[in-house]
Amino acid sequence: MASETATAQQIKSQYASLRLKRMQTEVAQFCSELLRIKAQLMCDLYSPESLKQMSGIMGTDDAPYADDAIALIKQEPTRSFRIEVAADSLVEMDEIGEKQSRTEFMTAFGAVLRDAVPMVQAAPEMGALVGEVLQFVVRTFKGGRQLENVLETTIAKMNEPKPPAPPQPDPEQIKAESAMQLEEMRAQATMQLEQAKQSAMAQTEQFKAQENQTIEAARLQNALQIEQMRLAAETEREAMRMAHERDMEIIRQQGENERAKVTAIIGAEAKIAEMESTDANLRDQM
């Protein structure tokens, strides 16, 4: 009915399961007997390698115990194993119920760990008791069966005897070691300071050498420029002197030509005067 609540529906579902409980138990018992017979035959007829490959144990955390387990079940007198099929494994899995079960498991497991870790840290001898409590909680939940092996291994490692704590050092020894370490630190600091000073001096000398090289290069460059300017000035002065001499030679030659012309004119005038005088004398004689 639509008016029924979820709790009522759940009660009906559980009641139906209870009615089928006896038949489920009989089917589970029948399946368990079949699997037990099958396991007996496998232990007698199958090789250890076949058992390893079929079980897939080598891919699990129980791989180191595979050989010992196979040797145990191969011995007929000491064979004491039992195969059981749980009745609830024959029912279709309820995903919602499974999720709720896992959530309850994580809540309970987390609560135990939250209270157990400080206890073990304060009193390591309580580790065995805490391990048993954790296993008790894990075995309560069906989904926690897969964690039993890992939990047992972890608890075994946790319960292993711890190496004895080193003895407390003598205060005087601690004081002497501290003084020695302080002295070593002071010596290292002095050495580092000396190295830094030497490095600074080396860098200063290198800087001075580079500066001197720069100054010397600048001086040589200036001297070269001055020499080039001096050569250019001398060349220009020599060119001007030669041009002046050439001009003076031209002027001198022009002056000599003028003097020659004047001399020729004077000579011509003297010759004309002489001729006039001769002509006058001739006229006088005539």
Q: What structural keywords apply?
A:
79% helix; mainly alpha; 3 domains; 286 residues; rod-shaped; single chain
Give the helix/strand layout.
Elements: H1 6-45, H2 48-55, H3 66-74, H4 95-122, H5 127-140, H6 148-158, H7 171-285
Helix pairs in contact: 4-5, 5-6
- Category by helix and strand content: mainly alpha
Helix content: over 70%
Runs in which pLDDT lies below 50 for 5 or more consecutive residues are none
Strand content: under 5%
Form type: rod-shaped
Largest pleated sheet:
none
Number of structurally distinct domains: 3
Q: If you average the pLDDT, what whole number results?
A: 79
The H/E string reads HHHHHHH
> What is the CA-based Rg, rounded?
63 Å
Counted by DSSP, the helix tally is 7
Strand segment count:
0
Distance between the termini: 196 Å
Give a written overview of the molecule.
With 286 residues, the protein is mostly helical. The chain has three domains: 1-91, no CATH class; 93-161; 207-286. 79% of the residues lie in helices and 0% in strands. The protein is built from seven helices and no strands. The chain has helices at residues 6-45, 48-55, 66-74, 95-122, 127-140, 148-158, 171-285. The longest helix is centred in the C-terminal third of the chain and has 115 residues, at 171-285. The chain is rod-shaped. The model has no long low-confidence stretch (mean pLDDT 79).
Please outline what is shown here.
This protein is mostly helical.
